[in-house]
Structures are given as C-alpha cells and as structure tokens.
Amino acid sequence: MERKSRLRRLGVPVVVAVLVAACGAGHRGASPDGGGGAAGQATTAAPAGQTFGDLPSPCGPGTAKGATDQGVTDTAINIAYGDDRGFTGSPGLSHEVGDAVKAMIKWCDDQGGINGRQVNGTFYDAKITETNNVMTEACGSAFMLVGQGWALDSTGEQTRVACDLVSVPTFSVSPEFANGPMQYQAVPNPADETVGAFFAQFAKLYPDAVKKAAEYTTTLATENYSTKRGVEASKPFGWNWLPCTQTVNYFGEPDYKPFMQKLKDCGAQVVWFTLSAGPQLYNMLQAANQVGFHPLWLTETNNYVQGLADFNANHLADNVYVRTAYVPLEQAAQTPAVRKYIDVVKADGGDVSQLGAQATSSFLLWATAAKECGSTLTRQCMVNRLSKITKWTGGGLHAASDPGENHGPTCGMLLRLQGTKYVQVYPTKLGAFDCSPSYTVKLPADFVTVKLNADRIATNYLTDKAIRPQA
Question: In this predicted model, what pLDDT tens digit does every residue of 376-396 receive, in sequence order?
Fold first, then answer.
C-alpha cells in the first residue's frame, strides 16, 4: 500500500544504525542557545539565489499569517529539538545534533524565516535517560519536533503519539519510533528493512575475513538491537558469525581485557559493533591492543566523529571501518552542500560531524515542507507534504532516500580511519556511492519486534486520532 495513504508518523536520522543516536565525540556539554531569536517580522528580501548545495533555500520572507496550530503565530514557528549531550557516561554525547539545528535555525531566520515567520527553537537535553520527561515538556508547546536525536527514543514514543507531536528527527533507534506514526526522517532507518551496502562492500574487500565475524555489543537495549540488526543485514552477502558475542555494561566495565581475550580466542577476524565513540569504546580498543588482538573493526555511521579520530593519534583504531550514506566532511571542497553545512555550523560556534549533517538534512526536509504549507501551516499540512517527498538528498549531503515512504538509501560507501583522518576506501572514486537495489535487506518477520499494520506503521501506541496523510 502506498505510504502516502498510510497513517504516518507525524514527524519528529543511527544510528542509522543505531544507537546512531548515541554517538558523540567531544565534550561540549553546555546547552546551545536554543532559539532563532525573538519572533518578529521578516525582512523584505532574502539573499538572492540562496541555496543549500543544489537545494533552493526554503527560507525567506513572506506574508504567511495566522495562529494555525500549537506553536504557530503570525510571526513565529516554535519547534523543539535536542540531543543527549548531558549524559554523564559520555559527556557531550551527540551534541553535534543540537549544534546543527541551532545553526540552521539562525541560517533560516537570517533569510527571513519561513514565509516570513521566524523559527524559534527550544533545546531539550534528554541525557539518555530523560527522554520521556523532555517529550512531555515538548508536547505542551512545540509545533513539531525537528532534528532531535535521542538514543532512548522508545521511552518517549507513547507520549509523543498521544499528543500528536509530528517529528522530523535526525535518526531513529528503536523499532517503535523508526516505524512510528507521524514521523518522517531525512535518511530513514525503518524496523522492517535495513541497508546492507556496507556488508556487501566489506565482503568484497575481505572475502575470507567475513567468514569469521563476531559481535561486540552492550546492555543498552537499543544498541543491542542495532547490532543484531546488522547481523541480519549481512547474511545475504556471505558473512558467517562465530558463537562468541561479547556483551558489556553500557555504563562501563572495570576491565575490558577479558572480553577482548574471548574474541581473540574465538578466532574472530572481523568485529562488528555500534557502540558510539566515547570512554567505553576507547577502553575496548586499548584492551584489544593489550591482549594482542588486532582484528578488522566494522561499525556504524555514529562513529564517523572527530573524537574517535583524535583518539586514533595512537593508531589503535587504524583498522576501524565506518559505513556511511553521507558525503564525508573531508570532501567538502568538492561538495557544495557539505561545505555549506560546515560553514553554517562553524559560523555559529558549533561542532560538526556526520550526525550534524543528518540533523541538517532533517531540518531542511522540515523547512521545505513548512514553506509549501504557507499560511495553512498545521501538523496536518506537514504530514501531507512530508508524505509526498519520496526522493531526498538534503541538497547533496547524502545518497538519495525516501522519507515519504520510509525507505533508506540503496547506496553507501566505506570509510577507514587512518591516523586522525577518515579515508574513503570503497568505492575508490571520491564522493561516489556504490548502489544496488539488492542492498536493501528485508528483515525477517520474527526479527521485527513491533507489530506493523499494512502501511508499515508500528501499532504499539497507534490511535484513531493519529494524523494521517490526506490527498
């Protein structure tokens, strides 16, 4: 059934992957200044020819008026966004998400807002464990959630759906949220299918090593799910998994060497993990070196961050390979959208990473739909518009995805960390993606842990009042 007719998530990308969400390098734990300034009238003209990569800017002056929905006035659109930067186990976690949305709000408001309405953002730090608390607060005032990235998104999903809070998130982690109603993400990560491109690509590079692969995961349920999901995605591409999965406490272990020794004794040549950059990951890599264990490491997009690159001044992560469907930041000179993202965030004093680029693409997706709604800016209009966007690249930030129908990209590339730099290794042509319809892997029914209706919407918290796309 066509997604446009389905009861669709009203709007809030990994990690990807998972726990994509909980990524984060850096230690900027302070809350960003969450707004685009006080609401006010737009100027009479936006900068001529303003674009974001190959995307015409959705921001600029206009004459839109009316208190059309919660959080919308004649002069302002009030949105909520946030990340997990206050998590004490990894200070600064995923802070690039909030940095990007804050900077994009300013970029948009400097052009006149959206149809003349200024965008005001309220920042919420979920700190991993407070997602439902911040969701409850956002429900009381926000028009929509835009570009948020919360690792434990499942814990706030019932609250979000109950208050009809449409979301265009940076990423989704839990299956409840990944296929939840009223949610559209720039690079979808649905519960019933996944992207297997990087497993296929890695198998082409190391056909023998993938026969001896092992999992490394943690006690965090969303991360554990993401790791298992990767194992399923690998199966069509010739991977064989050894029976020695290692599971560590997400909040840390006193000694990681026993876990690394078990993987070494098992004969693992490739280790797949989705744990985000931070003390736990660094301790793992140090422990592996201490026991003389030097496998190939394959991980999710959430580990394409400066923190891990800085850590690798010691070269302990030289064999870490990272999958991505985004153009690497190192290729900004050749990619206008990437250059624009970096310039906008740096000008606002923020930090950049691929998670930040994901947040930027989701903000642009939201703003594009909001512009089309004009003076009829309601959650219903946003769902209608978002459900019709079936090809999206964020102006050239990433491979094409299908937000409206909730399908991720059929393309990808592999990066390798070498010293303090990420280097593209597959395909070898810089900026090129390797694409194939076969890279979309349908997950088995017994792996999909939520019940989906005929429109692929999770039914956990679904009610008749959830906002549906209209013709």
Answer: 999 999 999 999 999 999 999
Residues 247 and 371 grouped into a single domain = no
Residue 217 phi, psi dihedral angles, 5° rounding: -140, -175
Length of the chain: 471
pLDDT of res. 27: 37
CA angle 191, 195, 201 (to 5 degrees): 155
Say which residues have a Cβ less than 8 Å from residue 311's Cβ, sequence separation at least 6: 277, 282, 285, 317
Angle between helices 354-373 and 379-386 (to 10 degrees): 110
| CATH code for position 430 | 3.40.50.2300
Q: How many CB atoms lie within 10 A of CB 137?
A: 15
Look up the pTM and report it: 0.82
In this prediction, residue 371 carries a pLDDT of 98
Residues of the domain holding 19: 3-192+333-386
DSSP H or E stretch at residue 416: strand 411-418
pLDDT for 21 equals 33
Q: Are residues 151 and 135 in the same domain?
A: yes
Within-domain flag for 274:
yes
Q: Rounded to whole angstroms, how far apart are CA atoms 190 and 179? A: 6
Residue 283 identity: N
Residue 135 and residue 88 in one domain: yes
Which residues of the chain fall short of a pLDDT of 70?
A: 1-31, 33-48
Q: Is 421 in the same domain as 283?
A: yes
* Distance from C-alpha of 412 to C-alpha of 39, rounded to nearest angstrom: 40
